[in-house]
């Protein structure tokens, strides 16, 4: 019985250790940038998001810069923000050598502002002004390649 109490740690200590482990894990790996309550319909924003999904960051920036659709300037700004977040997370690495790409991008529906527009013969039609939330995740191709190589070597041995 004495051994069981000696090995048991307090719940607060375990929670703190788990929290610290999560923070350390968050320092490496993909970087997330979010855009919330963009006053554009999700369908219009998804058309632009589909263009850059899976592309390298430089190519994605060029696509967004010259794309005439309404959501492209906002996504361009979001991508630049994600790159800056990556720079803050990986201060010792160089951006040119990192070979970043858009790992995931998804557009979810946001709030809807519901308005009434007058219609003929005393009726009213409902107008739904849609908004969306965009989540962009970028990651480095170099790191992924290194992980794959180490896993292949381990399986051969």
TrEMBL record:
One of its GO terms (biological process) is translation. The gene is rplV. This is Large ribosomal subunit protein uL22. One of its GO terms (molecular function) is structural constituent of ribosome. InterPro entries: Ribosomal_uL22, Ribosomal_uL22_bac/chlpt-type, Ribosomal_uL22_bac/org-type, Ribosomal_uL22_sf. NCBIfam families: rplV_bact (TIGR01044). One of its GO terms (cellular component) is cytosolic large ribosomal subunit. Residues 14-26 have a biased composition (Basic and acidic residues). This protein binds specifically to 23S rRNA; its binding is stimulated by other ribosomal proteins, e.g., L4, L17, and L20. It is important during the early stages of 50S assembly. It makes multiple contacts with different domains of the 23S rRNA in the assembled 50S subunit and ribosome. Residues 1-27 are annotated as: Disordered. Keywords: Ribonucleoprotein, Ribosomal protein, RNA-binding, rRNA-binding. Belongs to the universal ribosomal protein uL22 family. It comes from Chryseosolibacter histidini. Part of the 50S ribosomal subunit. It comes from the Bacteria.
